Amino acid sequence: MIKENTFYPKSGLLFLLVVAPAFLLTAILSFVQASESRSDGTTGFFVLLGLFCMICFLFTLIGLMAVSPNEARVVTLFGNYKGTVHKTGLWWTNPFMSKRKISVRVRNFDSDKLKVNDQAGNPVEIGAVVVWKVIDTAEALFEVDDYEDFVRVQSEAALRNMATQYPYDSHEEREGQAGVIDTDVIALRSHTVEIAAKLKEEVQERLDKAGVEVIEARISHLAYAQEIASAMLQRQQASAIIAARTMIVEGAVGMVEMALAKLSERNIVDLDDERKAQMVGNLLVVLCGDKNTQPVVNTGSIY
Asked: What span, in angstroms and rounded, lies between the C-alpha atoms of 85 and 71?
């Protein structure tokens, strides 16, 4: 496996301001000397010298390269990796060296909406956003064919694999009640932090060989597939109604218990079991009903 190492080029300003003008000036003077008629036979020499200096001048310009912030240049010579230049500025290298530009900026990848089955087998639509950057330019260029396409394919594969390991929601059947929320079950919808950490781990494991660091990975879209969306919406509504009714009944029973205890403690009225049952029924109807009750006033004896 090829690992990144640092390449130290020569200053480009020195070659641009000193060496290149020197070759150009020498070439011009040589052509001027060659253009003058001479009888000593040195015309050919000055022509060759001028051509040589012109070629050196062009080669000097070819060897120049500029490195911008958050950019790197991967240097190879005849197919052999020589190193990577990260330092910004104008540099000069051997003109025969290949200098490939690669960005080390932070990038976003927004996956398509994928249709997968969750842990319970329910079809869901899921998408993710992956924030990544190149940290090893040698691995990114030489270990994979196209590192950007590699990031896309492997991120979607990791998202599919992760989605199959967890249920969409943390509802389960328990104690004869449907739709009870189990907080111990990690679900795609309710445990966003845990799911994001798991997704980042999955993606990073697949992209290590490409010299890519995953900074963040989060789910950007999550929904049931269209064929079951309506049924699951009804289930969620039923679960919410059951949870609300459970809370109301628990509160109503507590209020009835408190009312009977206060009446008995203060000796306001002495009720037998039948009257207590009637009172409990009336209070539960009033407290648990989803509509306003119509009171009936009894003006006669309590018996």
From this structure: 9
Residue 280 token pair: 């409990």
The domains located in the chain, with CATH, are: 10-102 (no CATH), 107-224 (3.30.479.30), 230-288 (no CATH)
Between the alpha carbon of residue 88 and those of residues 63, 71, 84, 98, 191, the distances in Å are 16, 8, 12, 18, 43
Quote the CA–CA distance of 110 and 294 in Å, as a whole number.
Answer: 57
List helix spans (H) across the chain: 12-14, 20-35, 43-62, 137-142, 147-163, 192-207, 226-265, 273-288
Contact between residue 97 and residue 80 where contact means Cβ atoms under 8 Å apart: no
Contact 236, 228 (CB under 8 A): no
Give which of 22, 32, 29 is closest to 56, Cα–Cα: 22
Question: Exposed/middle/buried for 128, CB within 10 Å: 0-12, 13-18, 19+?
Answer: buried
Cα distance between residue 154 and residue 128, in whole Å: 12
**Rounded (10°) angle between helices 20-35 and 43-62:** 160
Q: How far is CA 39 from CA 7, 42, 44, 232, in A?
A: 51, 8, 11, 101
Average pLDDT over residues 16-23: 72
What's the CA gap between 199 and 195, in Å, rounded? Answer: 6
The pLDDT-based confidence of 155 (bands split at 50, 70, 90) is very high
pTM value > 0.70: no
According to DSSP, residue 9 is labeled P
